[in-house]
Amino acid sequence: MPRRVPVERWGAGGPRAEDDWLADEAPLEVLIEHSFKDQRRVAAWGITLRTPGQDEELALGLLYSEGRIAGASDVLDVTCLDAGRVRLSLASHVDLDLGRARAATAACGFCGSPDLPVTEALGDAGFRVSWGVLAGLPAALEARQGQFRETGGVHAAALFDSSGALIAVREDVGRHNAVDKLVGWAMQEGRLPLEGMGLLLSGRAGFELVHKAARAGVPLVAAMGAPTTLSVELARHANVTLVGFLRGDRANVYAGTWRVREI
């Protein structure tokens, strides 16, 4: 939840003491319980900065998006130990590389990695969306952004169906965290791959976010902000429809235009 802090507001009438609401940002340590030489042990995988809430979803989505787990069958249990730690218990067949250290960051998991992940091209599962549905998505998301209205300091991501209904919405100080929380939610709900849903982003569509979408099977990514050259290249390679600058009555479609209908 947002946190109230004292602030001195300045304006034409001079300073005045008030309270303000800020988005909460706190570290989350991800612990991994796994098999090692026929024994179970717990090891720290890393720390990420996030907005507290849906921590189990975040941990699941993060490991899935980075290719550390292949699906729900790799996870025996996920538990929040306290306000700052979550533990994933992995099945014995999972060979998890714990050698790569993770810094405390709200950025994506690929930051600092020497190699970009390989993303397989998606097939066509029949997902289509009309221009009228796309045009209505920003207003629908804005109505669900409670923390943003209070703080102005969080990103939002949502999964939507072909009718434009928002199936799940997550907010976080890290745009990548918001998407990972959605992926983790989908894993817990048994909805992966997300072949019948699109992903809506409140900001820009960078490479990492398009990759996370493609890995989760999402066929369409719509962003209110700009894409990047690398995200467009990835979308075209992965057969993902990529929409940018979605703002009411206009948008640009950079890849997979055939999934967007006029009516």
Radius of gyration: 19 Å
Provide the low-confidence segments as ranges: 110-115
The largest β sheet comes out as:
6 strands, mixed
* Principal-axes shape call: flat
Q: Report the end-to-end length measured between terminal Cα atoms.
A: 39 Å
Strand order of the largest sheet: 9-8-10-11-12-13
CATH superfamily of the domain at 129-261: Cytidine Deaminase, domain 2
CATH architecture group name of the domain at 129-261: 3-Layer(aba) Sandwich
Content-based structural category: alpha/beta
Tell me the series of helices and strands, N- to C-terminal.
EEEEHEEEHHEEHEHEHEEE
Strand percentage? 25-35%
- At the first level of CATH, the class of the domain at 129-261 is Alpha Beta
Helix percent band: 10-25%
On the 0 to 100 scale, the average pLDDT is 88
CATH topology category name of the domain at 129-261: Cytidine Deaminase, domain 2
Quick one: how many beta strands? Answer: 14
Given the structure, what is the number of helices? 6
List keywords for this structure.
single chain, 263 residues, alpha/beta, Cytidine Deaminase, domain 2, 6-stranded mixed sheet, 4-stranded mixed sheet, 6 helices, 32% strand
Task: Describe, in plain words, how this protein is organized in 3D.
By secondary structure, the protein is α/β, with parallel strands linked by helices. The chain has a domain at 129-261: 3-Layer(aba) Sandwich (Cytidine Deaminase, domain 2). It has six helices and 14 strands. The chain has helices at 55-65, 131-144, 146-151, 175-188, 207-215, 229-238; strands at residues 3-9, 16-22, 26-36, 39-50, 75-82, 85-90, 129-130, 155-160, 166-172, 198-201, 220-223, 241-244, 252-255, 260-261. Strands 9-8-10-11-12-13 form a six-stranded mixed β-sheet. A four-stranded mixed β-sheet has the order 4-3-6-5, with helices on one face. Strands 1-2 form a two-stranded antiparallel sheet. A hairpin with a 2-residue loop joins strand 3 (26-36) and strand 4 (39-50). Helix 1 (55-65) packs across helix 4 (175-188), helix 4 (175-188) runs parallel beside helix 5 and helix 5 (207-215) packs parallel to helix 6. It is flat. It starts with a strand and ends with a strand. Mean pLDDT is 88; it is low at 110-115.
